C-alpha cells in the first residue's frame, strides 16, 4: 500500500496540489497579474481625474497590466471612496482620495457611509496643489482680490461661488473668504470642476477658489482670470499670479492634497509593491514636470505618512467647518 501511495503523493506534490506551501506561493505571486480597477471619485476632466490618469498610465506601462480608470462621482467624493472601502481587499481596486475623505468629512456628516480610519488603507501621497481664486474674464472685471471684494459688495444681488461639492476644500475656502470679507455670497455646489467651469464661463457663477489643476487651461487661454493662489509661494504653473498674502489677503494658505488608497486588509506584500511603484513614479522628473504643467505637485510618502498628515490637519478643518457652518447631514 505504501509503495502505491508514495508515488501518487509525489506526483501531487510535484503538481503543487498537496504542498503546504502552495497557498503562500499563490499569495506571493507578483502583483498585479490581472487588470486593476482605479476608482476616481470625481467626474472626468477635473484635477483628481487628470492626475490619476497620469499615474494609471505609468503604472500600466511599468507592470504590463491595465489600470482601468472608473469615475464614480457624487457626495463630494464619498460615493467613490465608499466603493473603494467596500471592495475586496485583494489589491485589484484602488483609487485617489482627496483630503475631504481623509480629514474633512468626519466634521460635516453626522454619519459617514464608511470609516476612513478603519476601512481604508493609504498607499502613498499622490499630489498637493493650491486652490486658485478664479473669475470668468467676460463677466467679472476685478483683477485682484481687493478689487473683487469692492465689486462684490456693490452688487445688490450678491455673488455666487462654485465648488465641487459641500464640504470640499474649495467650498470651505470660498465660504471662509466670503465670511471674512462680509460678502453676500451664495454657494453653488457641483459634481466637479468640469461642471463648475462652464457655469462660470456662462456668468451663472462669479468666482471659485478651486483646485488649480482644473483651471490652468482656461486661465491660459484667457477665459478665466487668476486673482491669487492659496499656497504659501507662487506656483510654477502661474508664475505671474500672486499668493493671497501678496495680494493683501492674510492668513489664507490652503493646500489641497490627495493620496492613493486600497480598502483596508490588503496583503502587506501588495501594499509594499504598490507603494514602491508610487515612489518610483512620483519621483520621476518627467512625471513631476507633467504634474506641474497640470497645476499640481507630485508627492510620494509611506502609508503612515498619509495618516500623519491627515491627523495633523484635522483640527484646522474642524475649525473651518465650525466657522462656516457647513453640514452634510
From TrEMBL:
Alphabetical list of Pfam families matching this protein: TctC
Keywords from the named record: Receptor, Signal
Gene3D superfamilies according to UniProt: Bordetella uptake gene, domain 1 (3.40.190.150), Periplasmic binding protein-like II (3.40.190.10)
Domain of life from the UniProt record: Bacteria
Signal sequence segment: 1-27
CDD domains documented for this protein: PBP2_Bug_TTT
Keyword Transferase: no
Family statement: Belongs to the UPF0065 (bug) family.
Name of the molecule in the record: Tripartite-type tricarboxylate transporter receptor subunit TctC
Source species: Roseococcus suduntuyensis
Amino acid at each position: 500500500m505504501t509503495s502505491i501511495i508514495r508515488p501518487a503523493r509525489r506526483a501531487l506534490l510535484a503538481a503543487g496540489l498537496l504542498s503546504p506551501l502552495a497557498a503562500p506561493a499563490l499569495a506571493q505571486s507578483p502583483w498585479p497579474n490581472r487588470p486593476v480597477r482605479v476608482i476616481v471619485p470625481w467626474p472626468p476632466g477635473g484635477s483628481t481625474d487628470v492626475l490619476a490618469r497620469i499615474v494609471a498610465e505609468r503604472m500600466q506601462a511599468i507592470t504590463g497590466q491595465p489600470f482601468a480608470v472608473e469615475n464614480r462621482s457624487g457626495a463630494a467624493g464619498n460615493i467613490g471612496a465608499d466603493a473603494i472601502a467596500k471592495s475586496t481587499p485583494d489589491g485589484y481596486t484602488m483609487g485617489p482620495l482627496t483630503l475631504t475623505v481623509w480629514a474633512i468629512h468626519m466634521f460635516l456628516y453626522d454619519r459617514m457611509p464608511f470609516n476612513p480610519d478603519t476601512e481604508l488603507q493609504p498607499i502613498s501621497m499622490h499630489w498637493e496643489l493650491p486652490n486658485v481664486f478664479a473669475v470668468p474674464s467676460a463677466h467679472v472685471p476685478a483683477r485682484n482680490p481687493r478689487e473683487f471684494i469692492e465689486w462684490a459688495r456693490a452688487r445688490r444681488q450678491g455673488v455666487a461661488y462654485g465648488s465641487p461639492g459641500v464640504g470640499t476644500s474649495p467650498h470651505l475656502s470660498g465660504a471662509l473668504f466670503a465670511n471674512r470679507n462680509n460678502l453676500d455670497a451664495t454657494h453653488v455646489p457641483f459634481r466637479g470642476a468640469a461642471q463648475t467651469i462652464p457655469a462660470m464661463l456662462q456668468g451663472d457663477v462669479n468666482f471659485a477658489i478651486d483646485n488649480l489643476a482644473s483651471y490652468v487651461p482656461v486661465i491660459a487661454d484667457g477665459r478665466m482670470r487668476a486673482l491669487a493662489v492659496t499656497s504659501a509661494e507662487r506656483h510654477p504653473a502661474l508664475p505671474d499670479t500672486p499668493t493671497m498674502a501678496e495680494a493683501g489677503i492674510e492668513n489664507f494658505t490652503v493646500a489641497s492634497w490627495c493620496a492613493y488608497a486600497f480598502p483596508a486588509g490588503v496583503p502587506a506584500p501588495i501594499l509594499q509593491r504598490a507603494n514602491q511603484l508610487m515612489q518610483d513614479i512620483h519621483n520621476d522628473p518627467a512625471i513631476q514636470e507633467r504634474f506641474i504643467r497640470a497645476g499640481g505637485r507630485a508627492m510620494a510618502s509611506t502609508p503612515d505618512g498619509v495618516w500623519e498628515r491627515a491627523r495633523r490637519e484635522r483640527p484646522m478643518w474642524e475649525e473651518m467647518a465650525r466657522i462656516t457652518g457647513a453640514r452634510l447631514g
